[in-house]
Amino acid sequence: MPSPTPTAPRTDIETFANPHPERDYTIRIRMPEFTCLCPKTGQPDFAELALEYVPAERCVELKSLKLYIWSFRDRGAFHEAVTNEILATLATATEPRFMRLTGTFNVRGGLYTSVVAEHRGRNWQPPAPVSLP
Q1: Which of 19, 53, 94, 100 to pair with 83, CA 20 to 30 A apart?
Q2: Alpha carbons 98 and 93: distance in angstroms, whole number
Q3: Is 23 helix (H, G, I), strand (E, B) or coil?
Q4: What does pTM read for this prediction?
Q5: 126: left (phi over 0), alpha (psi -120 to 50) or beta
Q6: Of 36, 38, 59, 74, catalytic
């Protein structure tokens, strides 16, 4: 019996229909093993990515997200550039009401870097916060 084809990095994002497009709700995805390369030194950079979004019609399919994130492993990228590129790709694929991506990069030379990038859908307004007693 032939062995299954191993997974490999991919640069496309698959989506699926939002099961509740009539409702604002938040999806949070934590990606603690993100890696890319420093474009200056070629050394690996490690980060945790945190994605939060309010879907409209489409949601991110998780396996394709994992393979997409993997595609950065051997690429040189500045923290600011890679965070904004990933957000742009995800926002284009899903067209969410709101999306925020936070990249928290591990220490390099005594410095920590966090990059927060956001996308807001046209005419979307966040609901008023609810305060419960």
Answers
A1: 19
A2: 13
A3: coil
A4: 0.91
A5: beta
A6: 38
Give the residues across from 50 on adjacent strands. Answer: 30, 102
- State the maximum Cα–Cα separation within the chain, in Å, rounded to a whole number: 61
| Catalytic (active site) residue 38 | yes
Domains of the chain, by residue range, sit at: 15-120
74 is catalytic: no
Of 12, 24, 45, 59, catalytic = 45
CATH of domain 15-120: 3.30.1130.10
Half-sphere exposure of 73 (CA within 13 A, CB side): 10
Q: How many CB atoms lie within 10 A of CB 87?
A: 23
DSSP type of residue 127: P
